[in-house]
Amino acid sequence: MFLVNPAASSVTPRTRVVIQKALAADHEVVLAETIRRDHATRLAKQAVVDEFDVVVVLGGDGTLNEAANGLINSQTALAVLPGGSTNVFARTLGLPDDPVEATGILLETMDKASPKSIGLGCVNGRYFLFHAGMGFDAAVVAEVEKRGRLKRYASHALFVYAAVDTWLRHYDRKRPAFRLKHSDGSVIPNSKFAICLNTDPYTYLGSRSLKLSSDAGLDQELVTISINSLSVNRMLGLVSAAIRGSTAFHNYSYIDYRSDVSSFVVEGHRPFPYQVDGDYLGEVTSLEFSYAPRVLELIMPNPELLGVSD
């Protein structure tokens, strides 16, 4: 199945046709296009029922997340092509931003290697590929989605604008929003912003990756980062460290950092926003996180084709 989100930022009719022809050269291909939110999940579930070998997704991270949720615990593999504005997961896998170039790598990988079974994070029944965010960053994503038409033309600038605007006007920076309760019994009583990582980088700002943890990866359990200060100096310092790839912030007094996390619970002091793989999911009063090993078959790009050694 070639699953396409025609509304994604970098998907054009020409790109879709070129990729479909390339896929169809040596494979039987069925085209499926999304038309609404959560449609990709239903299409992916149907692909499982119809015993498709692979679902190739051309779309943004939101479409990719939906498709992955439709393939959980099945033998139908997920293949990734970059079609959105940021393409965090595709770039984390090492794929180029050009979807046609990425298709060549994908096809050669499919001919030479079997899918890899990977683990994912799960929050309130929704699986995520690279991260889930609570509090401030989810509020930023909500503001970006209000201006969704601009993402195609000014995606990274829009995120920077939304982050500043949210910090100034749309988020309570003074009061903690929730607490984190870990499975070992420890409690982080006050947090204003938290991230749960399944992979790293956290995201990309233009060509720059924002790296928060060397402990996060598809073969490891989750990483949690809880932040209890949104002062401008500390936030800028955090972004600067992430761009440099420095992990010195792990030891800051206002940050709680943990790796190899199998499960935890988030309890709100009041309703708080959350997002999954960059998709805003609204406000909640509690969240339950867990790590699910080996739940998704993934076509992993061949490192040799990416110019990267094992």
CATH architecture of the largest domain: Sandwich
Q: Helical element count? A: 8
Q: How would you characterize the largest beta sheet? A: 10 strands, antiparallel
Question: How large is the share of residues in beta strands?
Answer: 25-35%
Order of helices and strands: EHEHEHEHHEEEHHEEEEEEHEEE
Secondary structural class: alpha+beta
Helix content: 25-40%
Pick out the low-confidence regions.
Answer: none
**Separation, N- and C-terminal Cα atoms:** 29 Å
Radius of gyration: 19 Å
Residue-averaged pLDDT? 93
By CATH, the topology of the largest domain is: Tumour Suppressor Smad4
Overall form: globular
Number of domains: 2
Number of strands: 16
Identify the CATH class of the largest domain.
Mainly Beta
SSE diagram, text form:
Layout: E1 2-4, H1 13-24, E2 31-33, H2 39-49, E3 54-59, H3 61-70, E4 77-82, H4 88-92, H5 99-112, E5 116-123, E6 126-128, E7 131-135, H6 136-146, H7 151-170, E8 178-182, E9 187-191, E10 193-197, E11 203-205, E12 208-210, E13 222-227, H8 232-244, E14 255-261, E15 263-276, E16 279-298
Parallel strand pairs: 1-2, 1-3, 3-4
Antiparallel strand pairs: 5-6, 5-16, 7-10, 7-15, 8-9, 8-15, 10-13, 11-12, 13-14, 15-16
Helix pairs in contact: 1-5, 2-3, 6-7
